[in-house]
Amino acid sequence: MSKRVKYHVSGRFEGQFKTLQDLALKSGDPFPEGSKHLIRVYRGSIFNHHRINQEEFHQSVGEISGEHVNNIEIAAGEHWPAEHTRIFSLGQFKLLNPEISVVHSINGHTYGKISGDITASVAEGEYEEPEEQKDENPWQRWQIWKDQNENNNSDIPKKPTPNPDDGNPIPVDPGPAPLGRGCINVFSFGNGCLKWIFWLILIAALLYWLFNSTDWGQQMFCRFQNWRLKRELAEVQEERRKLEETVEKTRPPASQCGGREVFKGTNQQQNFTYTLGQTSGDVLIAYEMFKIPDRMEVMFNGKLVAETDGEFGFASGADTLVFPYIFKSNELHELTIRIIPNQEQATTEWQFNVICP
């Protein structure tokens, strides 16, 4: 496929090559004269380059010449008209002083890296690949690229390249699977996916018949249902247990009604919580504040219902507070007693007793 020539270039070329014969070559060897070693250059880059005219291109000489090379990178430069680094195609090229390295012989072809001084006509677009390159085994192209990059421009490969001559097998692309070997086989149930689909349908039909038409199937189904219900019940019970634990953690610690609280020490506020029972009646709080006045507050469900008498609620000596309690099933029954010490003294002493109905 012809392309319109856009520029002509002269510079230094580095790229890849392959030959159409398995003719032994080593890194640094010159190419054989004549047509003994037909070479095809593919992909590469041109640097240290500048633009030349058509007459200069025709007057140039080269030891190797060719045409229609795709994937050639030419960088933007002072003496090159393209504004950015781009990928071009070479319509014709002439290579002078060629040098080869990293040479491999695979499946009847020789591959390697090639460099030299180049003059070429530069075209837009890509040329159609030659038939032999289209048919090239994809595994071979990958192996060539892998070996060349592993060697890092070394002449000696790190790993020996498989060669049928030395007894090492070469992986071969099996290509499309023939009819009867792959997944699609419409002529027989002997191979392919249809065989497995047939057996799956048959097994599913047999299981359906067993579970719906036999006593054994009904028993197995009932056992499965019982197991499933027990599992769901266990999950519900576990969830209920976790919820009860969460609710229990939110409840304040409860003291026993009728218990006596005694304190003697440094000033500090203290709270005591009681859970009242289901019997309505008066709740009595008998207290003794001794000589140093302290304040007592009695709260039911967070509401103040009684407190000690005295200046600002601070009282000394003994007395009793009474709170009328009415049991309601839809309310909390939480009684809190708070002791607020006198801050004018460093220490205090008090005691009290709660008597529930």
What characteristics describe this protein?
5-stranded antiparallel sheet, 357 residues, Jelly Rolls, 14 strands, 23% helix, elongated, alpha+beta, 5-stranded mixed β-barrel
Short note summarizing the structure:
This protein is an alpha+beta fold and 357 residues long. Helices cover 23% and strands 38% of the residues.
Q: Strand pairing plus helix content: what structural class?
A: alpha+beta
Number of helices: 5
Q: Tell me the major beta sheet.
A: 5 strands, mixed, barrel
Strand order of the largest sheet: 1-2-3-4-5
Output the radius of gyration: 49 Å
Number of domains: 2
Per the principal axes of the C-alpha atoms, what is the gross shape?
elongated
Secondary-structure element order, N to C: EEHEEEHHHHEEEEEEEEE
Description of the structure:
This protein has 357 residues and is α+β, with helices and mostly antiparallel strands. The longest helix has 36 residues, at 215-250. 18% of the residues are buried. It folds into two domains: 5-166, no CATH class; 260-355, Sandwich (Jelly Rolls). The strands form three sheets. It has a five-stranded mixed barrel. Strands 7, 9, 10, 11 and 13 form a five-stranded antiparallel beta sheet that branches. Strands 6-14-8-12 form a four-stranded antiparallel beta sheet, with no helix packed on it. It contains five helices and 14 strands. The chain has helices at 54-59, 131-134, 138-151, 193-213, 215-250, and strands at 5-19, 39-52, 64-74, 86-106, 109-123, 260-266, 270-275, 281-288, 294-300, 303-307, 314-315, 318-325, 334-340, 347-355.
